[in-house]
Amino acid sequence: MQHLLSIESLSDKQISQLVTAAIEARRVRHSADAPQPLRGQSWALVFSKSSTRTRVSFEVGIRELGGRAMFFSGNDLQLGRGEPIRDTARVFGRMLDGIIIRTFAQSDLEEFAQWGGIPVINALTDDEHPCQVLADLQTIVEHLGDWRGQRVVFMGDAVCNMARSWMWASARLGFELVLCGPPEFTPDPTDLEHLPGHSVTVETDPLKAVAGATVLYTDVWVSMGREAESQERLATLQPYQINSRLVAAADPGAIVMHCLPAYREQEITAEVLERFANVIFDQSENRLHAQKAVLSTIAASRRAGMGGAN
Ligand code: CP
Ligand code: NVA
Q1: Peptide bond into 130 cis (omega under 30)
Q2: Neighbouring C-beta atoms of residue 183, cutoff 10 Å
Q3: Do residues 79 and 106 touch, judged by C-beta distance below 8 A?
Q4: Which of 124, 132, 160 to mutate to test the pocket of ligand 1 (most atoms within 8 A of CB)?
């Protein structure tokens, strides 16, 4: 694996291996012989959007793997004054060992990967949030044993970056995924016909969607960059709030997941969030382990000089 640009660009085998490695990273975290494959390396974090979990988990993870992390907000770099990505990427490529990027357009990330000559990791774009879904899959394995056989319902803005990464995880791994939201926040079902696995469906009725669900997943209703649409989104998405009524209509052993940050009484009630806080904060912690797995896998590929096409 040369880069991590999306879940779409991973195979089922690569996803499984990363989750297995993440579980192992969690197990060995505090042992004296925990591996340090980034020893002597310098990685840049370039973030054009806010972050708590992603920034902290990458900075801590890189340090624990023996490397050094440098954080730049979009405006810290000449990039913010119009220097082209292709020039920034080539400068980075001369001095750094990898770049972790949180930005708007997926194409900007791909341009960094094309020009930098060093690994690029997607720390969230408008299209995908692959690191979060890897941590979420790890959390499902730790709480439910396996992703196989689960019925995952993504509730709310079912066309956002998180929903898209879940869509690709389902297409690759074959578990059932229901994308549930109002018509303007769900994909056109005909667009899903081309997905491998035929495991993703769309449902606009929240009670129908959660019947038999083993995982209820939600995300903010107003993603970063969509603030101008806040009022309309909060009104339209209200029927898709994860509350005690929806949880009661799901499988009795169902878990509730949230990538955070959470807006209580919008996409999730405070009561449900606190009831499932052990799962939700495991998701946060697993960002650290999953990203250490990604960094270690990329470092091993580079050492072996056999980076793949991802
Ligand atoms: N879930 C997530 O990516 O959180 P941050 O925006 O705080 O990084
Ligand atoms: N969909 C959200 C995810 C935050 C982690 C956003 O893009 O803001």
Answers
A1: no
A2: 9
A3: no
A4: 124
Looking at ligand 2, which residue's alpha carbon is closest to its atom 8?
223
User: What's the CA gap between 219 and 156, in Å, rounded?
Assistant: 7
pTM above 0.90, yes or no: yes
Question: Which residue ranges form the domains of the chain, and what is each CATH number?
Answer: 12-128+288-305 (3.40.50.1370), 130-283 (3.40.50.1370)
Contact (CB, 8 A) for 219 and 162: yes
Which ligand approaches the C-alpha of residue 58 most closely? 1
Query: What's the mean pLDDT in 41-57?
Result: 98
CA–CA distance, 216 with 285 (Å, rounded to integer): 19
- C-alpha–C-alpha distance, residues 128 and 163, integer Å: 8
In this prediction, residue 197 has a pLDDT band, given cuts at 50, 70 and 90, of confident
